[in-house]
Amino acid sequence: MATFKVSRIDTKPYDGQKPGTSGLRKKVKVFAQPHYLQNFVQATFNALTADRIKGKTLVVSGDGRYYSKDAIQIIIKMSAANGVKRVWVGQSGLLSTPAVSAVIRERVGKDGSKASGAFILTASHNPGGPTEDFGIKYNMENGGPAPEGVTDKIYENSTTIKEYLIAEDLPDVDISKIGSTSFSGPDGEFEVEIFDSTDTYVKLMKSIFDFEAIKKLLACPKFTFCYDALHGVAGVYAKRIFIEELGASESSLLNCTPKEDFGGGHPDPNLTYAKELVQRMGLSKSNSESEPPEFGAAADGDADRNMILGKRFFVTPSDSVAIIAANAVEAIPYFSGGLKGVARSMPTSAALDVVAKALNLKFFEVPTGWKFFGNLMDAGQCSVCGEESFGTGSDHVREKDGIWAVLAWLSILAQKNKYKLDGEKLVTVEDIVRQHWATYGRHYYTRYDYENVDAGGAKELMAHLVNLQSDLPQVNKIVKKVNSAVSNVINADEFEYTDPVDGSISKHQGIRYLFEDGSRLVFRLSGTGSEGATIRVYIEQYENDSSKTGRDSQEALKPLVEVALELSKMQEFTGRSEPTVIT
Ligand code: G1P
Ligand code: ZN
Fold first, then answer.
1. Last residue within a domain, chosen from 181, 197, 213
2. pTM of the model as a whole
3. Three-class secondary structure of residue 315 per DSSP
4. 223: domain CATH number?
5. Tens of pLDDT along 251-301?
6. Which of 239, 414, 459, 574 has its CB 3.0 to 4.6 Å from that of 453, i.e. a possible disulfide?
7. Rounded Cα gap, residues 359 and 368, in angstroms
């Protein structure tokens, strides 16, 4: 057994190591600076109590983006030096974010050990490669992202750090092969185990969904399927689950080989970036000749996001979570005992609220970011939750889960078509959504993103909107000037959240303008960007007259969009006449 020593390396703080909505994300060239990653990792170890580190098991893996392999070796060596007993690494360093959460919660090591936390190496949906983004975040023993108390401490530590611990002489571990390697250090034995990236996760999915029912649906010649992993880590799970377990054909997978640079693409599953899938589903301007599949879905780099499409039909994420919640009990065995409650992030449309009300379910509105759902789930108050930003999930893990969302939709389709597989026509994704709107009304919804705008201008725009909130007559004057048919703003505020479980308060979580007819405008600055600022504008309008739920959503929302741009003086503050992304 090779032995190692612990070295203490002198270092100096770097500015800006403050974790954002979901961990620390920076350009690779920033992370690759001497001691940069090491500082952050040591700041994290120092922020965690010793009982979470000493003699414990940690998971280290991610979406496989550029710089991950170097980072994994560094974190292994620093874990050894900081008294960690075991590091678990998914084969080739690959684990989706939800799979990491599942591994922390479910996986049991040979000696009965469980993991106490994880370093997840991902910048989620941000592009990868030598000139693009890398990211790192820490998840706790419940499988969820570190709460703000911990991330604040990590940041604080990063501003005063003087040294870090590393086992410099520990040889690099071959992470491509499954197996264990042990080393001997000052605290005793240290082990690195490389394990299959999919086993734990697949077992969990099989305990949630009726795989036999989904298999029958996929075997039906009338049901065609397509999944695009955008060269992220989801490909590993898609091959195992959709092909090996559920019998879909190889040709139903697009971009399912993980690449360090996501093939040069932007691994974000939306109508702008999932180009190939959008084309195949008959939703792009230049449609292919062939008949689109019945069902299509995509994932982001680390496979926690999802986009759901029907044939020539887009399902908004806000509708998707509402539809899953409305059908969960009938279609998904895991929920057969009923839902404990449902939750959405504030900017997500109120489609879920209507379902919660109709089904008499507990309902929560939380700030943006998955970490806020975790407390509710740990307290047994929430079963299904989602965000407008293509995040959907449940209390089976403490992260949003892209593959889970696809399996949830396949389950709903399987249930609705149980007795129709041999018949003339299947119930389609579009049928399900239109039926949902007929029952619950429709929330027209769109989000405008202004990416990489000048940070100063973005701040001024937000300050202007907060300021304007104190003068509703002036607000309504602007609204009426833009379009007299738009209803009045009756309330405007900055969203503030008091966590019902631990009482913690989160302020400044987005600026809201609330209209008399239930429409909403929300403005937020992104917390996940790595450069400049991104302004997000969320636009929503409720329609419960079933004769009016079939309109084109951009068309229906046009007046409200104009109001949003005028109220915020978007062009004046940012110089932008168009958003970079519309979803
Ligand atoms: C974005 C999304 C948010 C999501 C987060 C992590 O954060 O808007 O819903 O939880 O990514 O995937 P933002 O950049 O808006 O802070
Ligand atoms: Zn992600």
1. 197
2. 0.94
3. strand
4. 3.40.120.10
5. 999 999 999 999 999 999 999 899 999 999 999 877 666 899 999 999 999
6. 574
7. 24
Range of the domain at 538: 442-582
- SS3 track for 422-454: CCCCCCCHHHHHHHHHHHHCEEEEEEEEEEEEC
Residue 419 sits at φ, ψ, to 5 deg, of -105, 15
- SS3 of 10, please? strand
For ligand 2, a single-atom ion, the residues with CB < 5 A are 124, 300, 302, 304-305
Q: What is the pLDDT of residues 85-128, one digit of tens each?
A: 999 999 999 999 999 999 999 999 988 999 999 999 999 999 99
Among candidate residues 249, 214, 259, the one with its CA nearest the CA of residue 403: 214
Whether residues 102 and 246 share a domain: the answer is no
What's phi and psi for 545, nearest 5 deg? Answer: -85, 110
* 526 neighbors 358 (Cβ within 8 angstroms): no
What is the three-class DSSP state of 130?
Answer: coil
Phi and psi at residue 480, in whole multiples of 5°?
Answer: -65, -35
Q: Give residue ranges with CB within 6 A of ligand 1.
A: 21-22, 124, 345, 368-370, 387, 389, 391, 526-528, 536
Using CB atoms within 10 A of its CB, is residue 569 exposed (0-12), middle (13-18) or buried (19+)? Answer: middle
Q: How many independent structural domains does the chain possess?
A: 3
Specify whether the CB–CB gap between 378 and 503 falls below 8 A.
no
* φ/ψ of residue 325, rounded to 5: -60, -40
Closest Cα partner for 530 from 136, 13, 97? 136
Is the same domain home to 431 and 452? no
Give the ligand at the shortest distance from the Cα of 304. 2
> Kindly report the CA angle at 244 between 242 and 246, in degrees rounded to 5?
50
Ligand 1 atom nearest the C-alpha of 527 is 16
> Tokens for 104?
């922390």
Which of residues 422, 440, 458 is at a domain's end?
A: 440
Residue 525 CA to ligand 1 center (angstroms) comes to 10
25, 137 contact by CB (below 8 A)? no
Backbone angles phi, psi at 179, to 5 degrees: 150, 175
Q: What is the DSSP letter of 239?
A: I
Average confidence (pLDDT) per 10 residues, the chain, 583 residues: 94 92 90 97 94 94 98 98 97 98 96 95 96 96 91 96 97 97 94 98 98 97 96 98 97 97 96 93 78 97 98 96 98 97 97 97 94 92 97 97 98 96 93 96 95 93 95 94 92 94 90 93 85 92 87 93 96 93 88
> Exposed, middle or buried by CB within 10 Å (0-12, 13-18, 19+), for 317?
buried
3-state secondary structure of 390: coil
Distance (angstroms) between ligand 1 centre and the Cα of 337 equals 31
